[in-house]
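ingest -> validate -> predict -> emit
validate: passed (alphabet ok, no gaps, 192 aa)
predict: started
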Amino acid sequence: MSDVKNILLAGVGGQGILLASEVLSEVMMMSGKDVKKNEIHGMSQRGGSVTSHVRYGEKVYSSIIPEGEVDILFSFELLETCRYLPLLRENGQVIINNLKIAPPSVALGKQEYPQDLAADIAKRFPNTTVIDGLDLALEAGNAKTVNTVLLGALSEMLDVDRQLWLEALHKMVPERLLDVNLKAFELGRSAR
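emit:
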């Protein structure tokens, strides 16, 4: 049995997924884990799908999470969550940002955005946490801190000292945005 843990971050370009995966990777390295990370940007500048694989443990040999071995699906958008649910291991955990971003087919009126996705996912996957990331980011003072809100929620699921998360945020977030991101992180931690 491998000690490697697998977290798949998924969302849409511009949501801060890459910064979130950098912070997560930094935290795991600071906690003494071997970490491998892989990103797929797709059409990220046009609102396309973006994923980041983060794997950590005693020794990690590959940056790609094998199919069916995602321990935590950490998703920034509802439809993107659905896209990657098949990669989740049995009894895997899901953190969802309760946000809808209309893909081009919906924006053009060719399809409808599915209703009640968060409830449907939670029904199918009992280890699901739904976070209203945008509301909490606005409460923190900046809508662009949704990724940090979600990191706060994720931090409550992982056995890593809170101080390491704060150190990583201090290291990776620009000074002018640090206070609002720290507030967003704490709001995310208490949202679970």
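The two ends are 29 Å apart (CA to CA).
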